Amino acid sequence: MTASRPRARALPRALPRALLCALLCALLCALLCALLCAAPARRAHADAGSGAPTRHLNTAAALATGGAARGAGSFNQALLYNPAGMSLAPSYAIDAQYFRTSGGDNTLGVSVVDSQSNFLEERLAVGLAYGHVLRGGSTSGYEGRLGLSLPAAALSGAEVLVGAAGRYVFDELTSRDGFDLDAGAMLAAGGLRLGVVAESLLEVAGQQRFGGGVGFAHTRFTLDVDLMYQPATEARSLSAGGELLLGERLVLRGGYERLAPPAAPARAWASGGLALVEASASRGQLSLGYRRALDESGEFVFGLSLSMFLQMPVAARFEQ
Fold first, then answer.
1. What sign for the dihedral angle of Cα 109, 53, 76, 243?
2. What backbone torsions phi and psi does residue 224 show, to the nearest 5 degrees?
3. What is the separation of C-alpha 22 from the centre of its chain, rounded to a whole number of angstroms?
4. What is the pLDDT of residues 198-228, one digit of tens each?
5. 15-319 is classed CATH 2.40.160.40
6. Quick check: 32 pLDDT over 50?
7. What are phi and psi of 26, to 5 degrees?
8. Pick from 13, 144, 18, 161: which is nearest to 86 by CA?
């Protein structure tokens, strides 16, 4: 007779999961209480579009796909667009970025996502990011972000992931200065993914945005379509993008974004880019992204990212 496998670890593993879910809920409640007790701050966004040109934290891959990363985004993209996606796969990802806008802004950023160290619980992911904006040689804005995510439930052939990201934002141009919070959830069933997000939950000027995305991730390609809505202004935005792995070294990306405010003409942007993937064990990646407004303004953003992926499945390494 074969001896049954001991189950002594089942209870200890369940306790950290429940504790972490409770901590995430407590963090959200504490931040909401702080919001209700705080005095109104000066908060005015110059651009409410997803993946806006003034975004302090981004990746070249997300820029190239029109900011469509809320449904299928993983690793460092997930930290910035839907924190739940950080727990999709075990990995240790480091991403350094540089962006330049047509207005002369220069942004330097770095992000780290770790979902393989299993802090307290298997596949608990922790992400850190910081972006610094220089305008005219002096600091005009910065943003720091801390995100957590973990699997919350297992369904038949699928699983539910949840996550949250707290951030501190300062922007001289839009007078933003304070803490904020994003939260998200994702249903992953094989390559099909459905994400929902709530952004800027601590905004006191009605700048909260809600929505999500539908994505499909394959070993050779990824597609994502996002829809976002801002109740205070009734602004709606659509982002759609994808990427295709050619051979083993080259990734092509493209995307489209449209922002439709109720009291102003709609605006649209087209984007594209590529990435060179290193086939060695270090699994590095150099990504280029470019986004341009489809109007007479001629506004554009150019982005460059250098990424390193450690202990990550080879088939997923190009998704960043």
1. negative
2. -150, 135
3. 23
4. 999 987 667 899 999 999 999 899 999 999 9
5. yes
6. no
7. -65, -40
8. 161
How far apart are the C-alpha atoms of 68 and 243, rounded to whole Å? 11
Q: Does residue 200 contact residue 209 with C-beta atoms inside 8 Å?
A: yes
Nearest of 312, 310, 318, 304 to residue 58 by alpha carbon? 304
Q: Going by DSSP bridges, is the β-strand pair 284-293/192-199 parallel, antiparallel, or unpaired?
A: unpaired
Tell me how many degrees the CA angle 248-251-252 measures, rounded to the nearest 5.
145
Q: What is the pLDDT of residue 205?
A: 65
pTM tops 0.70: yes
- For the segment 56-71, what is each residue's pLDDT rounded down to a tens digit? 789 999 999 999 999 9
* Lowest-confidence pick of 24-38, 39-53, 268-282: 39-53
Q: Please, where are the H alpha helices in the chain?
A: 10-37, 60-64, 75-81
Query: Residue 149 pLDDT > 80, yes or no?
Result: yes
Task: Report helix, strand or coil for 180.
Answer: strand
CB-based contact 107:93 (threshold 8 Å): no
76-85, 198-207, 216-225, 249-258: range with lowest mean pLDDT: 198-207
As a whole number of angstroms, the distance between CA 283 and CA 135 comes to: 33
Q: How far is CA 98 from CA 105, 175, 314, 318, in A?
A: 11, 23, 25, 19
- Strand 209-217, strand 267-277: pairing: unpaired
User: Closest Cα to residue 203, out of 178, 228, 235?
Assistant: 178
Task: Assess contact for 277 and 303: CB atoms under 8 A.
Answer: no
| Domain extents in the chain | 15-319
The sign of the torsion formed by the CA atoms of 221, 54, 182, 148 equals positive
Backbone phi, then psi, for 266, in 5-degree steps?
-70, 150
Distances (CA, A) of 302 to 99, 116, 251: 6, 31, 17
